Structures are given as structure tokens and as C-alpha cells.
Hints:
Blueprint: E1 2-5, H1 13-28, E2 33-36, H2 43-51, E3 54-57, H3 59-63, E4 74-77, H4 84-92, E5 96-99, H5 103-117, E6 121-125, H6 131-137, E7 143-146, H7 149-153, E8 163-167, H8 173-186, E9 190-192, H9 199-213, E10 216-220, H10 226-238, E11 242-245, E12 261-266, H11 272-285
Parallel strand pairs: 1-12, 2-3, 2-4, 4-5, 6-7, 6-8, 8-9, 10-11, 10-12
Helix pairs in contact: 9-10
Bound molecules: FE3-S4 cluster.
The site of FE3-S4 cluster has 13 residues, from helix 1, helix 5 and helix 9.
Amino acid sequence: MKIIRAEKMGFCFGVKKAVEACYRIAEKKSKNKYILGMVVHNKDVVDEMKRIGFVIIEEEEILNGKDPLVKGDTIIIRAHGTTAEITNILKQKQIEIIDATCIFVDKIKEILIERESLGDEIIFIGDKEHPEVKGIVSFGKKINIFKNLNELKEKPLNSSKKYSVLTQTTLNKEKFMDIKEYLQKHYSNAKIFDRICGATSERQEATRKLSRVCDIVIVIGDLKSSNSKKLLEVALTENPNSYLVQNDIELDLSIFSESMKIGITAGASTPEDIIKKIENKIRGNFNVEY
Ligand code: F3S
């Protein structure tokens, strides 16, 4: 048996930093520690954060005044960031904010504020229900949000205005190129910013390559994590013998046989220790080449 890992897998840069911030705070503060929303879309990680003393609170609780926060408490803002309104409420309540917003998300926010101050109207391409998008656009004044190129085409731009075009960090690169091509062809007054984060596409590409050369593919990730589910989709298109597994306890060893080449990959929200436990479980039950 052979185990091959995808070239790119597991925690992305932003999630890694956010989780590290949680551990740092857990060591320093003995009580009243909170995380805004799920620090990462992985149930095992969230359970671990609760175990080390964090309470998870949702934005709605803060907006509705139903949160338990009091002056001096500490709250960690997850990698997706949060809205201007939430930030203001937390500041007013004199809560200590540990901002673990990913620098790539922050950069988009900065560009948006700067371009608006220069008089541009902002066009934002992304999912308006996603926390990252909600957070970024809340720092602007009047933002036009479009989900995709079709929606954008429905609203002709004003040729006498200047536009800046920004996107969600995880927007599909091919879709972005289509949008760019459309805008460049029709609107010379639209300035396009490419701030897409490569973490998602890199993991998908590595999974595609891996799935072609393995007998079976194990995608490690939470069943609710959208990036892990997407990786499974990619794996399945190349290899029908692909499975999404949450952790070592749920790994069914009967799907393997000694002669197999096993491919292992993991979403950007899956921590290395869960990956290692799965690998060790396989190694402990089969003769795996090193
Ligand atoms: Fe940041 Fe990209 Fe991860 S934007 S949170 S490094 S997916």
C-alpha cells in the first residue's frame, strides 16, 4: 500500500493564523474569551476551542443585544472578518478585540475604502450572504453587489462614472477572467482589482492531479465545510472511488485493500492533526510503504 498526499492541502494561511491566535489567547486569558462565529468550518476544531475555554457567539446575538459580552472581555474575530457595525458595537462596549481577519480580506477592504474616497463607485462580485462579503461591503457607502457575470450584465454601467471592481477572495478564477473580459470590452471606466486568494484553487488543482493517479481518494474535512465538499466534487470527477471523511473515528477501513494507492487531501479548514490521525490509522492497519 502507498499513501500519497496532495501537493497542497489543509489549513490556508489565514485560517492557520486565526487558530494560532485562539491558542495564544487561551494561554494568556483564563476567562471570558469569545470567538465570533466559527473560527473555521470544522466541528472538531470548534469543539477543541470550546474545550480550551472559548464561548462561540454569533453576530445576530450582538446585533440584537442578546450577547453576554461585558467590558474587558476578549473576542477573536475569525479569518473572514466582520462588519463595521459589529466592530463599532464591540468598541463601544470596550471589548478587547483580537482581529484575526485574514490580511487578504483586509486588503480588499482597504482598496474599497480608498477607491470610494477617490470618488469611484464600487462593484463587488461575490455571495452577499457570505460573512466575508458582508464584512467587506459594510465598510463602504453604496456598493453594487453582483453574484456573477449574468447578474452584472443585467445592470448597464453609467459611462460618465468611474468604477472600481472588487471580488470575494474565493471567487473562481475562470469566472473572474470572464467578468474581466466583459468589462474590458464594454467599459473603459471600470478599474478591475484581482485580489483572489489562490488557496482554494490550489487545493482543488492538487486534488484533481492526485485523484488521477490513485485508486482511492480520501478528502478529509467537515461534512458541512463548503471547501471540503468542493474538493470531494473535484475528486469524484476524476475518480469515482472518492470519499469525504470527517475524522479517524469515522474512517471505515474496509474500503481499503493492501494493493491500493491511497490519495489524501484536505480542505482549507482541516487541521493537520486530524489528517495525521487518519494517516496513522491506515498505517496502523496496513503495510504502507515509506
Ligand atoms: Fe485568507 Fe485565502 Fe484562507 S483569503 S482565510 S488565505 S482562503
